[in-house]
Amino acid sequence: MEATLSRPAARCSCLLKTTTPSTSRVLLLPSNQQQTRQKSTRARHKASLNIPPHPSFLSNPSPSSSSQSGSTTLIFNPPSSAPSVFQTPFKFLPKTDPRRRATLAKNLFSSSVTTNFATQPVDVSSLPTIFDDRSPATTPKNHSLTKEDVEEMRRLRLADPVKNSVLSLARQFGCSVMFVMMCVQAGKEHRDKVHVEPHAAARERWGPKKREAKEERKRRMEMLLRGEI
Amino acid sequence: MMKRLRIERAAGQLLVARPCGPSTPGAALRSSYKCTTSQVPVRHSSSSSAAEAEHTPLYEEDGTDHARFPPLEKLPPNTSALPSPLPSRALESAKLSALHARLSLSPKIPLQTLARTLVDASADPNPYFNNSSLAFLGATIINYHASEWFMVHYPRLPMEVLEAAMTGLAGPTPLDRIAKAWGIEPAAAPGGEVDPGLLQFSLDQPGETVRGFGYTRTVVDKINKNNWQRSVAARVIYEDNLPALPSTTKAKQTTPAVAEQEEQQQEEQQQDDSEVDYAETSPAAPKFSPTSYGSSTTRELSEKAHANFVRAVVGAVFAHCGREAAKSFVKAHVLSRQLDLERLFAFKHPTLELAMLCAREEFDPPVARLLSETGRLSRTPVFVVGVYSGNEKLGEGAGATLEQARLKAAMHALKAWYLYSPGEGVKVPSDVLGQEEEEAAAAGGKKKGGWEPVYIDIGELISR
C-alpha cells in the first residue's frame, strides 16, 4: 500500500492483506477494479476533506472573557432547509402592516444581502443571473414603438415567419417577446410546420424507453408546478 | 328490509323505561302518517301469550315474522310503518344521551332536536321531521365562520384556492370525518323502529334538501342556456355558496346515475358471477380506497348524510343556544382542524405571473440569480436560485436544473405573496359583533368603534 487510507473499511482490507495474504486474494476485488490512492492524489483528497467549521462555531465575541466568567454562549446553527412560505418578504408586506415599520430602515438602506451560504454580506448585483428571454428584466424594452413599427413588424413576420422569428423581431425592435406575440401571430400552418411536424416525425422514431422518459419528464414538470417535488 | 339487532337491549328487556316523554308540538303532525300519538302504547309482557297474539298483526307490515324474531324493544303500535322514529322515543335512547353528553351540548338542546338532526331527508321526506332545515341553517353558519376566518387571516388568497380551502375545511368530506369522529353510526335502513340515536339515511332515494332561500338571478338561466364559461367569482355571486350547499339539482342528477350503475353491476354480475371490480365501476372516485364498503354512489350518499348531520347539529346549537354558542361550537369542531394551505396552489406560468405581480405593485422586475450550486457535471446536481426584485429576495428554490430551480423560486415568491397573513391575533367581524351592541348600550349615544378595519387586497392578479 502506497498510502494510508483513512476509511475504516479500507483499513480492514489493509490488515487482511498484510496478515493473511492467502485469503485476501479471495476477499478483495481484482486489482484492475480496486480503488487505489497514489501519492500524487493523496494531498488533494486530504485537503478536500478538510472542511472548516461553520462560522457560528468560531465567532465567539470574547473567548477569554467568557472562559473567565464561565458564561455559556448560544450557538444557533440549524440544518439547511427550504425557507418557509409563511415568512412574507418585506416588499410583500402591505403599508399598514406593523412588521413593515419595524424593518423599514434596515431594508431601505442596505444594498447587500446575506445569503444562507455566505458568511459575509454579498452584493446582490454580483450574483450571476439566469438568462431568461421572456423575463422583462433581461429584455431591453422599447416603449416608444410607433404604429408604423408595429405594422412593419406584422409585415415582416407574416412575410417570412421562419426568418423573422419572435425572438429576432424582439431583438430587432428592442421590445419584449410577449409584445411581439401580442402584435402579430403567425398562421396556423407555420405553427404546425415549425412546432408540430418536425417533432411528430422525430416522435415516430422514438423507442419505448425514450417515450417513457419524455412522458415522465412531462409528469415531473406538472408535479413541480403543483408544488409536489 | 333489514333490521338492526340491538344486542345490548336483549338482556334488559324488562329494564326499558316506559315511553312517557312530553308530547312535542311536531308530534301532532304525525297524524298524516295514520298514527295517533295520543294512543297509549300497551305494555307488552312476554309472559302473556294473549297479548302477543293481540300485537303480532301490528308488526307485520314489513314482512318480519315476529313469532320467530320478537322485537327487542316494546314499541308503540304502527311504529315500523313510520319513515323515522317518533320524537317521543328520543328520551329512551341511550345512544342519543351519550352523544349529547359527548359533544358537551347545552341542556337547552332537547334530545328530541338531537334525534331530528339524525334523520336525513332521504330517510324521511317530511321537512317537519327531517334535518334539512337545520342543516341549511348550520351550513350557512359554518360557511360564514370559515369564510370570515379565511378572509381576515389570508386576505390575498385567490378565489380558486379559497374555494378549495373552504371545501377542505367545511366541505362534505371534512364534515363526514367530524361526524365519524363523534362516533355516529348509521342505521342499516331507515324506519320508525330503529334506535333514534342512529343516523338514518336511505341509499335508494336521494332526498331533496333545502338549497337556498330568496330568488334565483335570471342571468343564471342565460348562462346555463348559452353554456358560457364562468369564473369562481361569478359562481359565488350568482349561484352557489362556498362550498356548495347540498343541492336539489345534484340529488336529482344522482338518480339516473344510481340506476345506471346498478344496471352496470347487474350486467357484470350476469357476465361473470364474480364480485364487482371497483376499478371498473368507479374509476372517478379516488378518495375512497377500493377496500372500503359499498359502491362510490353509496359512499357519496353516506358522506352527504353524515355532513348534513353535522350541519344540522350546528343549526340546532344556533337555534337553542344562540349565536355565540354556535360560533364557539364551530370554532372547536370545524375551524380547529389543520389545513395545509401551501399545498392547494398550482401554477401554470409562475415566472410570468410573478413578473405581472411586480409590474402591478410597481416593484422592480424580478431577476433570478444563482445563489449556490453543487455537482453541475454530476448525475445529481443541485442549484439554489433566488428571485430578486431590486435588492430584496422574494423567493428561493432548489432544483436539479436551473430551470426547475427558477420555477420553484418564482412559485415560492408567489405563495409568499398569496399567503400573507396579518397574524394570529386579528379579530374577525363576528368577534366584535356582540361588543359593539354592548358598548352602544353602555355609552348610549356615544359610539366607540370596537372594530379596526382589516387589510383587504385590491384583487386577483389573474382572473380565473
From TrEMBL, chain A:
Domain of life: Eukaryota
Entry GO MF terms: structural constituent of ribosome
GO annotations of cellular component type: mitochondrial large ribosomal subunit
Residue runs in coiled coils: none
Record's compositionally biased regions (Polar residues): 29-38
Annotated Low complexity bias: 56-71
Location of the region described as Disordered in the Swiss-Prot/TrEMBL record: 29-74
InterPro entries the record matches: Ribosomal_mL58 (IPR024388)
Alphabetic keyword roster: Ribonucleoprotein, Ribosomal protein
Keyword Ribonucleoprotein recorded: yes
Cited PANTHER family: 54S RIBOSOMAL PROTEIN L20, MITOCHONDRIAL, LARGE RIBOSOMAL SUBUNIT PROTEIN ML58
Name this protein carries in UniProt: Mitochondrial ribosomal protein subunit L20-domain-containing protein
Organism of derivation: Cercophora samala
TrEMBL record, chain B:
Keyword Transit peptide belongs to the record: no
Tagged with keyword Ribosomal protein: yes
Alphabetized Pfam families for the sequence: DSRM_MRPL44 (PF22892)
Composition bias, Polar residues: 246-256, 289-299
Biased composition (Acidic residues): 260-278
Positions of the UniProt region annotated as Disordered: 61-87, 246-299
Entries under InterPro entries matching the protein: dsRBD_dom, Ribosomal_mL44_DSRM_fung, Ribosomal_mL44_DSRM_metazoa, RNase_III_dom, RNase_III_sf
CDD domains: DSRM_MRPL3_like
Residue stretches making up the DRBM domain: 349-419
Domain RNase III: residue ranges: 96-184
Example GO BP: RNA processing
GO CC, one annotated term: mitochondrion
Family membership: Belongs to the ribonuclease III family. Mitochondrion-specific ribosomal protein mL44 subfamily.
Protein's name according to its UniProt entry: Large ribosomal subunit protein mL44
Native source species: Cercophora samala
